[in-house]
DNA sequence: CAGATATATTTGCGCTTACAATCATTGAGA
DNA sequence: TCTCAATGATTGTAAGCGCAAATATATCTG
């Protein structure tokens, strides 16, 4: 630790970050509304579409999403009703449920991806210089690595 | 717009960001638990403590927090019950309610601030070089400025 | 093999939040 | 002044999510 307080520069960086991330999320979410998808729905479809056979066990999917198991159950309800995802029971282990993206879901994702990419560009990437984009990645990889190790002293 | 797709570098930056911010928020939130405060509660106390007379109209406070009016009403309920915030009716305009931080609230904030600052340092600032801290501020000011202007073409 | 333990998922419940409706008060125009 | 739109706050309602409990199945242990 460097000091018990934040320098002016540190404070400015922290405040800029804290005040902006919610607005950014809201903007990205708003741009998905025309596709009838929430950001959370979109993430489900992306992860499933990138998975083998387009499917994943519920528990693996909830880990990927950083969502609780119950949260995932309810999130899937909507996607199943929209016919974007199907639930199929595991054959070898009958406890497990697989969430699998349907062809409807793949089509919906294909329609949404260009707008979403454009949205990420518009609100984030294109606001930055190439050097800043690189810095952004470096910064959050460093922060993410730190959070992973979670080196709390006491616990 | 530069391109309809993301370059590898852009994708890496975006994914690092997207995967990390929720973890960071969770870590900061967890470090406030011993103080019996959520991050949202903490923000309320900070904003009120920095305001004239330690109080703010509900609507101004909800704007500062980026919270809906109804959300603020319910959030204050908890802080009022904890005696950290008091509601007082406006004198000139009897529609307005002021949320004002109590001395209990100021004490609670004083107790929490050092831990929170340490938390921000541990999880964010100290993971970065000074140059990265500066870059972080520049990046999110640029992004925030862009979101403010919201230059959507169609609407 | 039986019983205990672990794992995968869903359901019950409560918390937080936003949107829409409601109520109270203010300010502006006829 | 009286009316009506605008403003500030709260309440009703619903959606999203996590925790704990419940359920079903699998695995380990004696």
From TrEMBL, chains A, B:
PROSITE patterns membership: HTH_MARR_2
Positions of the HTH marR-type domain: 3-145
InterPro entries: HTH_MarR-typ, MarR/SlyA-like, WH-like_DNA-bd_sf, WH_DNA-bd_sf
GO function term, MF aspect, one: DNA-binding transcription factor activity
GO BP, one annotated term: response to stress
Coiled coil: none
Annotated protein name in UniProt: Unannotated protein
Species for this entry: freshwater metagenome
Classification lineage: unclassified sequences, metagenomes, ecological metagenomes
